[in-house]
Amino acid sequence: MDILTNVLNTLELKGWLGSRTEVSPPWRFDFLASPDSTFHIFNFGGGYLHIEGDTTPLRVEDGDVVVFPHGHAHTIYDEPASPLTQAAVHLDYDAHGEYEIYPFEGEGTQTILLCRAFHFENPSNYPLLQNLPKVIHIPGEQGLMVEGFANIVSLLAYESTLQQVGTEVMLRRLTEMLFIQVIRVWIAQQATGTEGWFAALRDQPISAALGLIHQSPERGWKVEELAKAVALSRSAFSSRFTQLVGEPPMKYLTHWRMHMATHLLKQGVEVEKIAQRLGYDSEVAFRKAFKREAGIPPARYRKLA
Question: What sequence ranges are listed for the domain HTH araC/xylS-type (predicted)?
């Protein structure tokens, strides 16, 4: 079971490259906080990035990709003393928003900024999103080391210059691929011994246990069964799983079932079929479990979604 693929499918990732902006020094842009994950790609130039709440700016160079998983407010500029070019810029995802190009016809060294957002139709507070830092910075030269990453960035930069049939759908699909590659690179960067859901993916026994849960959420798993399947004692497995994932195995199983339930409810699947698919003895048992976890009955959740 490819856990990352499984999770991203239920999160319903949507990507959108909203604009290509060409600027020449001096320049400064202030971006508002967003309910979505936002990003920038720096092409043919660089600058500095200041994140709200941090004291030290981050230097960014040509080819760098910067992602704000939680949509933090931030400022980007070519030099610390540069005057404000544009304030209160929104990067919120817009399913129907058109892609725009803002060309600069002046002289001097140009910086090209590709900006916009990643959106999740079904986040449900899933650990993949909750465990990400406020900013992920992938340097251009580091991206070249990851097969396929530089190709995506280059193709995005190329497509962003075009305004022809199919450009917008290409840009949307490429931004979705970009997010997946950023997450893969970031996971690979994490030091051995770190904790959290992503660290669990790198731990062979716990990753295997997560794979079993994701592959068969309908099964009435017991801690002993999972421990035996990954060749650990019950106590060692339970402790290791809880430490890395952040919650006990059975709690994680329940949360994953509820996450899948929200995904299926939004797709219009009947409650009875969802109950069967997730291993509940009856529709009533599922309704009770869902209300206990989500705070509202499945039918009401479907109406609000």
Answer: 207-304
